Amino acid sequence: MENFSVRDFLPSDFEALSLVWSxxxxxxxxxxxxxxxxxxxxxxxxxxxxxxxxQGLVVGTSWMTFDGRRIHLHHFGVHPSYQRRGIGKxxxxxxxxxxxxxxxxVKLEVHQGNLAAINLYKQFGFQxxxxxxxxxxxxxxxxxxxx
Length: 147
Ligand SMILES: CC(C)(COP(=O)(O)OP(=O)(O)OC[C@H]1O[C@@H](n2cnc3c(N)ncnc32)[C@H](O)[C@@H]1OP(=O)(O)O)[C@@H](O)C(=O)NCCC(=O)NCCS
Hints:
By secondary structure, the chain is of the alpha+beta class. It has one domain: Gcn5-related N-acetyltransferase (GNAT) (Aminopeptidase, 3-Layer(aba) Sandwich), CATH 3.40.630. It has helices spanning about 15-25, 35-45, 85-100, 115-125, 140-145, and strands at about 5-10, 45-55, 60-65, 70-80, 105-110. The radius of gyration is 16 Å and the shape is globular. The site of coenzyme A (COA) has 20 residues, from strand 4, helix 3 and helix 4.
C-alpha cells in the first residue's frame, strides 16, 4: 500500500498544487490565488500544507490563512484519484496541530451539499455556526459605483 505524508508547501510545488486545486474545484481563477498571495499569507503567519505520495506527487492541500484574529481554513482538497484513502484525515489532523500550536480559533466555509467534507470536518470537531450567507466583493471597480 502506498504511503502518504504531509509537509509544508514549497514554491516549486505550485504547478502540481494548481492541478489538485483545479481537479477538486478549488482553483476558480476568480479567487485570484497565485504564488505571490500564497507566500504573502505564509509570511503573515499562515500555513499551506501539502500531502505527497511516496513518489513526491502532490495529492492534497490544506491552506490556513491568519488575519491576526482567526485562522481560516480553505483550499482543503485531495486529488480525485487519491480520495478515500485517509489523506483528508491526515491533512485535517496536521492542520489542527498547527491551529492548536498557534492558539487561535479556526473557521471554514463549506457548501451545504458537500457531505464528504462536512463529515470529515465534523469528525475533527468543527461545529456548524448557523444560517449565515457568504458575501464577497471580487471586482473592486464595484466600490466606485457604490461610493
Ligand atoms: C473532502 C475531501 C478532502 C476528503 O478527502 P479524502 O482524502 O477522500 O478523505 P478521507 O479518505 O481521509 O476520509 C475522511 C472522512 O471524510 C468523509 N468522506 C470522505 N469522502 C466521503 C464521501 N464520498 N462521502 C461521505 N463521506 C466522505 C468520511 O467521513 C471519511 O471518514 P470515514 O472514512 O471514517 O468514513 C475530498 O473529498 C475532496 O477533495 N473533495 C473535493 C474538494 C472539497 O470539496 N473540499 C472541501 C472544500 S470546503
